[in-house]
Amino acid sequence: MSSSWSWYVIVLVVLNLVGSVWLLWFTGKRRAGDPAPEQTSHYWDGDVTEYNKPMPRWWIVLFYLTIVFGTAYLLYYPGLGAWRGASGWSSQREHDAQRAENEARIAAAFAPYAEKSFEELARDPVARKLGQSLFASHCAACHGADARGARGFPDLTDTVWHWGGTPDDVLASVRDGRQAMMPPLASAFASDAEIDETVAYVRSLSGQQVDGQLAEKGAARFSALCSACHGAEGKGNPLLGAPDLSDSYWLYGGDVASVRTSVTTGRSGQMPAHGDLLGPARTRVVAAWVHARSSAAKQP
Fold first, then answer.
1. How far, rounded to the nearest angstrom, does the alpha carbon of residue 117 sit from its chain's CA centroid?
2. What top-level class would CATH report for the domain 108-177+272-298?
3. Domain limits, the chain
4. Burial of 292 from C-beta contacts in 10 A (0-12 / 13-18 / 19+)
5. pLDDT tens profile 165-191
6. pTM of this structure
């Protein structure tokens, strides 16, 4: 708050307080020449008279005490512009204190799970419940409440892992986040025909029905433009997050239009880091829960 606005607020508050005291004093006393309370000359039905009696003394005193209390409150707490008040209290400081208290309580609750292996956490019913709760709070917005993902957000219940599916890989994804980047390649093609050929070859890698002649022509172009990330056979590279193009899983869709968009305009996907937000123990618990969800799909 600027100094001018601060002084504006201070002057406004002081004028209101002084004005309230003056109004109470001015209207609460009788003056010489005022008619008696019963002499207002207002009568109804012959014997119903309007009186003009002063306010009760206790009510006036209570009103004054209210003003005194309000003034003391404004002086003790920061209620006058940018002035911090005699107490030095601030909502930010109180928020930080409450947050620190809550963080300490949460850290104590999760401390027993900080060093446990993923296998131990997967067998612990309390740890599984905590992991599911953390997932619902921090991950479900993108991956869905059932962890099955959506277009552009990976399904975490299958066996497909673009960045690797070992416990350490999953923990690193949750803790440090991931940044996937498929560069736009439209400028690398001389014509739309070359794009169609490459798209046909990419789709053929997963066994989809394509024009064989187009796919054959696109093979060399795939080798030149795409194999550095996806591998010569399109099997992907977990170190880069480059997906396996030979399976049936397509994060952004495997139809002609979707693959063409991926090739020409590229894709960008980001998994935000949660390590600083959750801390080591909670990060491990939710990562173990995610890993267990996928491991269940691997069971015969």
1. 29
2. mainly alpha
3. 3-90, 108-177+272-298, 181-271
4. buried
5. 999 999 999 999 999 999 999 999 999
6. 0.72
